[in-house]
Design goal:
elongated
């Protein structure tokens, strides 16, 4: 890759770091929400917005590099798919924190505890996707095959299995938030349902990022 200029894979990893800084801050966002710390919540919203903009700049740079390079070990379309799914994770993090600043979104303690559990489930999937992306340099060195590729494939399978649990959790939690006995004002109940849906989308983008990596692996068929 050095013979042909800047490595797109190094840029993709740099983009991933910006993206996961955005996502990681969601844990602090919900902690601020739990404390009813609106000032901290808005400060975190500003920081996530800044990081999302930085991620976009790295994404745009990668687009420019990809246009100028013709020799790559993988299909350009596959690389673009990984990039766009990864970038969408930062977009969803920004959407989530923005929505949480629209109103005072405090919840009764039992409901908030369920929301926080769901957030951890989603962020766990995002962190697994980050772990997969952190092995990209090893995959490039191994030409996307061998032991490293097999290890990454197993991690992607684990991520897909964990993603399967997100939809049922989303439905169950949304029902609880919209239930009459939850006691939430209608506007806040709807906003919370949207937040929960955005968190589900965040997890789905993480899963799709992993799936994009799987498409470029060159594993030998099992005998």
């Amino acid at each position: 890759m050095n013979l042909f200029g800047e490595s797109p894979f190094a840029i993709l990893e740099a983009h991933g770091e910006r993206v996961h800084q955005c996502v990681h801050l969601l844990r602090d966002v919900f902690a601020a929400l739990q404390r009813s710390d609106q000032a901290q919540l808005r400060a975190l919203a500003d920081r996530i917005c800044q990081l999302e903009t930085e991620a976009d700049k790295v994404r745009n740079h990668l687009h420019e590099i990809m246009v100028s390079q013709t020799l790559l070990p993988i299909n350009k379309g596959e690389l673009f798919t990984i990039l766009e799914q990864q970038d969408s994770m930062a977009d969803r993090a920004e959407d989530i924190v923005s929505m949480l600043t629209y109103r005072d979104m405090t919840l009764p303690a039992p409901l908030l505890a369920r929301v926080l559990d769901y957030v951890e489930q989603v962020l766990g999937n995002c962190e697994l996707a980050r772990g997969i992306m952190s092995r990209l340099d090893l995959l490039v060195e191994a030409s996307f095959t061998g032991r490293d590729a097999l290890t990454v494939s197993k991690l992607i399978t684990e991520l897909a299995e964990r993603e399967d649990a997100i939809k049922p959790a989303q439905v169950e939690l949304t029902r609880a938030l919209l239930a009459p006995d939850a006691g939430l004002p209608p506007v806040e109940a709807i906003l919370w349902a949207q937040v929960i849906a955005l968190l589900a989308r965040l997890s789905l983008h993480a899963d799709h990022t992993g799936h994009g990596i799987r498409l470029i692996l060159r594993l030998k068929p099992a005998r």
